[in-house]
Design brief:
It is a single chain. With 341 residues, the chain is α+β, with helices and mostly antiparallel strands. Among the domains are: 103-236; 242-341, no CATH class. Helices cover 25% and strands 43% of the residues. It has helices at 3-29, 32-46, 104-108, 151-157, 267-270, 274-280, 290-295, 326-339, and strands at residues 54-63, 67-77, 91-102, 112-120, 123-131, 135-146, 161-174, 182-194, 210-222, 225-234, 238-247, 256-265, 302-308, 313-317. The longest helix is centred in the N-terminal third of the chain and has 27 residues, at 3-29.
Length: 341
């Protein structure tokens, strides 16, 4: 071995040992407990108002040198009293474990790659986000996420929801602009059902459980335009379908809607008991609402046009065509695009 090569190997060994010691020291001494306390403190400090949530975190630790892993994550939101005078029961959304990791080699080449995953709601969630000057790429995969374990979702619609969410989402946004995005969605909710016969709508009526079967949503995104290829559910109690598009904006809540939707309660559900017969049967209370009456079609479906923005959608009766009529749906979509703000 030549003296020069020997000297290079010695220098390389010192440099390698230095970086090894640096990373080992960082790995063993990083104050994860202090980081955990700060995350919890800052999150809770930003929560205001009557619906403020509280974050609890059992443990925070390292994950593959350049990442972090959290266990026992809980989001606690205020509940509603089950009866007057009784204390409200808090709603807890629990994530068993979650991790995120920054790709070190990507940083060397001017890109930021973050991979993440979680074991939550009885299923798994995996994904990756890559950022560069040219574009942002998002890949997401979900498998059997139990919607009944997400009280926050039930709080949004006011009724318990069950079903297993699976599917994939892929998005490429040039210059990180959602309005220029390309990609696709392929989602499925198996065993979708709403209500439990106990929870009341607007604290007035407790509807029997409505079984919607399997909900399928597939969509393509081209130049910032999300086109719904299929959105349908055919269950024992409900038939539903929707078509149309969403013009994406860089601020998601400002995205413009141009959709048509139609649904129908089956005879099985409308004749389930005296309550459903009184609400959805012939001359039921549901049809006494002027908008519902205008939306009803001769085949029993209720048709609607959905316009406005994602943050503030507007619903209009649309009884002009039967569901699945391509010509009528296309005309409606064209009309509603002019009405969207």
């Amino acid at each position: 071995m030549s003296p020069r090569l020997k000297r290079i190997l010695i220098i390389g060994g010192y440099v390698s040992f230095y970086f090894f010691a640096l990373f080992a020291f960082f790995y063993l001494t990083f104050p994860y407990d202090r980081l955990k306390a700060r995350i919890v403190q800052e999150f809770n400090a930003r929560q205001t108002g009557p619906d403020a949530m509280t974050l609890e975190l059992d443990e925070l630790d390292s994950y593959w040198l350049s990442g972090v892993e959290a266990e026992g994550v809980r989001l606690i939101s205020p509940g509603t009293p089950e009866a007057p005078g009784k204390p409200a029961k808090p709603k807890v959304t629990t994530i068993e474990s979650a991790h995120a990791r920054v790709g070190i080699f990507g940083l060397l080449f001017g890109s930021r790659n973050v991979s993440f995953g979680a074991d939550a709601f009885g299923g798994t969630l995996r994904g990756e986000i890559s950022d560069s000057e040219a574009e942002r790429t998002v890949e997401l995969e979900m498998d059997a996420l139990d919607l009944s374990q997400t009280p926050l979702l039930a709080g949004l619609i006011g009724l318990p929801v069950v079903g297993a969410l699976s599917g994939t989402a892929n998005l490429v946004a040039p210059e990180s602009r959602l309005s220029k995005a390309e990609g696709n969605l392929d989602l499925k909710i198996a065993g979708l059902a709403v209500g439990d016969g106990k929870a009341k709508i607007r604290d007035t009526i407790a509807l029997p459980k409505l079984d919607a079967g399997e909900l399928v949503l597939t969509a393509e995104i081209t130049s910032g335009q999300l086109k719904v290829k299929q959105m349908s559910a055919t269950g024992p109690d409900l038939e539903l379908s929707a078509e149309g598009s969403v013009r994406l904006r860089d601020r998601v809540e400002q995205s413009l809607l141009s959709l048509t939707a139609q649904f129908k309660f089956t005879d099985r559900y409308t004749n389930k008991d005296d309550l459903t017969r009184g609400l959805f049967g012939k001359s039921g209370l549901f049809d006494l609402d002027p908008k519902n009456r205008r939306a009803k079609r001769p085949d029993g479906f209720y048709g609607w046009r959905v316009t406005g923005s994602l943050g503030h959608p507007s619903f209009f009766p649309n009884s002009s065509a039967a569901p699945g009529t391509r010509k009528a749906t296309t005309t409606t979509t064209s009309d509603t695009s002019d009405q969207a703000p």
